[in-house]
């Protein structure tokens, strides 16, 4: 028995070193993230995501350019979300710099709010430039017609810790609305370590998914996977 406990303790401390455990509720929930580990301290910082996009300021934001190829390689269920990992070669140009699409993933309900309105689902397209800076493009999903691209992705949904690989690569562009008008603000990762300095572009227009498609994701996760909205503090939210 003694040995068993020792081994367990060892395993626990190793996994804690690798990646401290966090959740969306309870003692390891969002209000405690900053205290779970020193590297999560930013979760209590001043420029956190998500936010309620309100009091937005009209400005001359330039349209951004997206060059996505069909590159969805696989989808992993990491227990916090379904994450679709993307092949190199797809990018978004922001501030005159290319940011490569690394992955996209899902939250239900949505995380950012638009004028106080919450959507049943939100997709985050995560991009990085050569300096490791991040741009997240967010699109809200509202309930409506079934989404054909989601239908392909949802065909086989991996259980926690599992990965599904795609033979036919899906293009992330098929999950974006035609109209790319957007809000912009400076924020953070919405999961630990809550790193700040992330460029956030939130599309004003939504895409649709059927009630069943949204429900399939909610059921698979078994819990909401949205961080509550964070104070805007000194930030401005711009709109084009
Ligand atoms: Zn996200």
From TrEMBL:
Lineage top rank: taxon: Bacteria
Gene3D superfamilies found in the cross-reference section: Alpha carbonic anhydrase
Residue stretches in coiled coil: none
Pfam families: Carb_anhydrase
Keywords: Lyase, Metal-binding, Signal, Zinc
GO molecular function: carbonate dehydratase activity; zinc ion binding
Xref: InterPro entries: Alpha_CA_prokaryot-like, CA_dom, CA_dom_sf, Carbonic_anhydrase_a-class
Catalysed conversion reaction: hydrogencarbonate + H(+) = CO2 + H2O
UniProt keyword annotation of Transport present: no
Residues in the signal sequence: 1-18
PROSITE patterns in the record: ALPHA_CA_2 (PS51144)
Enzyme Commission number, as recorded: 4.2.1.1
Alpha-carbonic anhydrase domain location: 20-240
Family annotation (SMART domains): Carb_anhydrase
Residue spans crossing the bilayer: none
RNA-binding is among the record's keywords: no
Family membership: Belongs to the alpha-carbonic anhydrase family.
PANTHER family, per database record: CARBONIC ANHYDRASE
Name of the protein in its database record: carbonic anhydrase
Highest classification ranks of the organism: Bacteria, Pseudomonadati, Pseudomonadota, Gammaproteobacteria, Enterobacterales
């Amino acid at each position: 028995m003694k040995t068993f406990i020792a081994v367990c303790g060892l395993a626990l401390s190793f996994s804690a070193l690798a990646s401290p455990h966090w959740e969306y509720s309870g003692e390891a929930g969002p209000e405690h993230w900053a205290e779970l580990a020193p590297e999560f301290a930013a979760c209590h910082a001043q420029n956190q995501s998500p936010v309620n996009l309100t009091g937005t300021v009209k400005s001359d934001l330039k349209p951004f350019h997206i060059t996505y190829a069909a590159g969805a390689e696989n989808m992993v269920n990491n227990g916090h979300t379904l994450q679709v990992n993307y092949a190199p070669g797809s990018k978004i140009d922001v501030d005159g710099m290319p940011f490569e699409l690394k992955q996209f993933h899902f939250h239900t309900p949505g995380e950012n709010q638009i004028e106080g309105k919450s959507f049943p689902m939100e997709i985050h397209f995560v991009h990085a430039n050569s300096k490791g800076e991040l741009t997240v493009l967010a699109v809200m999903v509202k309930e409506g017609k079934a989404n054909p691209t989601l239908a392909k992705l949802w065909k086989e949904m991996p259980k926690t810790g599992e990965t599904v690989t795609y033979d036919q690569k899906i293009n992330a562009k098929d999950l974006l609305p035609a109209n790319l008008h957007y809000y912009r603000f400076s924020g953070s990762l919405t999961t630990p370590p809550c790193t700040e300095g992330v460029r956030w572009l939130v599309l004003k227009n939504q895409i649709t998914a059927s009630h069943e498609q949204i429900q399939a994701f909610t059921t698979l996760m078994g819990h909401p996977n949205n961080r509550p909205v964070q104070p805007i503090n000194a930030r401005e939210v711009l709109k084009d």
